[in-house]
Amino acid sequence: MTIMNSLSPCSLSAPESGIVEVVNYARGREGVIPLWVGEGDLATPDFISRAAAEALVAGETFYTWQRGIPPLREALARYYQRRFQKALSPDNFYVTGSGMQAIKLAIEAVTSPGDEMVLLTPAWPNFAAAAEISGARPVSVPLRFEHGKWQLDMNRLEAAVGEKTRALFINTPSNPTGWTATPDDLRAILTLARKHGLWIIADEIYALYYYAGARAPSFLDIMDDDDRILFVNSFSKNWSMTGWRVGWIVAPAAMGQVLENLIQYSTSGVAQFMQRGAVAALDQGDAFVDENIAKAARSRDLLCDALIATNRVETLKPDGALYAFLKIDGVTDSRQAAIDIVDRTGVGLAPGTAFGEGGSLFMRACFLRDPAQVAEAAERLRRHILSR
Description:
The protein is built from 13 helices and 15 strands. By secondary structure, the protein is of the alpha/beta class. Strands 2-10-9-8-7-3-4 form a seven-stranded mixed sheet, with helices on both faces. A four-stranded antiparallel sheet has the order 11-12-15-14. Strands 1-13 form a two-stranded parallel sheet. Helix 6 (125-133) links the parallel strand 3 (116-121) and strand 4 (137-142). Belongs to the class-I pyridoxal-phosphate-dependent aminotransferase family.
């Protein structure tokens, strides 16, 4: 038996990221404008890094609270009161080692091997992969794409619910499409979940990146206290902390020991000095977040206006999130197109093939960058598209 044959089927089934494949292909090339991954171009601001550094120097390097240090959970409660107008207890918050771990633990908490989790696609590939690694089967429900806009088809969603369905995974605003659920969409999804006794795992990481108001509609606006909803989130996008790997779950307080146990047997908690930086982000970072959102809005307009004007790209400006999901005339293999585009233009895009059903003809561009750099990327892409 070979080494590979002796590994578990579960580990062998973990797919290679189609996004990372393209990144690795051109990583480190001079002059590449990297719109391929979901992060901005700013380092973590000093007031956050300084808080973490001071805690590190002060010796906050021991084992810590597995649910998260009390000051961070209290800061999260203040953040939700301020941004979501929702009064939550610190007991509703659980600090995780990244938004990705929050997703993984939420799926593990509500599904068992053989269960099904329904998700809307195109979607960030880690959602489905996390379910598969946990033993659950992801069931895709494609959004409708019409006239450049993505829309939810509730009939499709309800038809996907079966006897083995245990959870609905809802990411809004959406990575990669920018689709943002309306209040009516959310009510319909919640009604469906209540009807079938399903959990909702709500990924609202992009809630503040909403271009028609202060934030996107949230399940928090309509839910009752006894609804089965887990919220997963991260410090990555709002506060330019992608490399920190700190996230959180919002959950019923009754689940506290269950989630603490899942954290214990995976990471045993997030480093305390990093959590001090996260406290500073929440309590001092509103102005920085608002600047990031304003920059994203300017860059979104520059990128989308330039590409739509070619009459060779089918898309509309997304309602939320950080991505333009582009359908370029003549592209039938977005993986190969991503490689060709980075070779010929020096612009890194993510292939739509990475995002599951409904995404194969599209390319994703993250626009949370300096507007001047995004304008340069748009011009390179415009010239390439018109030369085809």
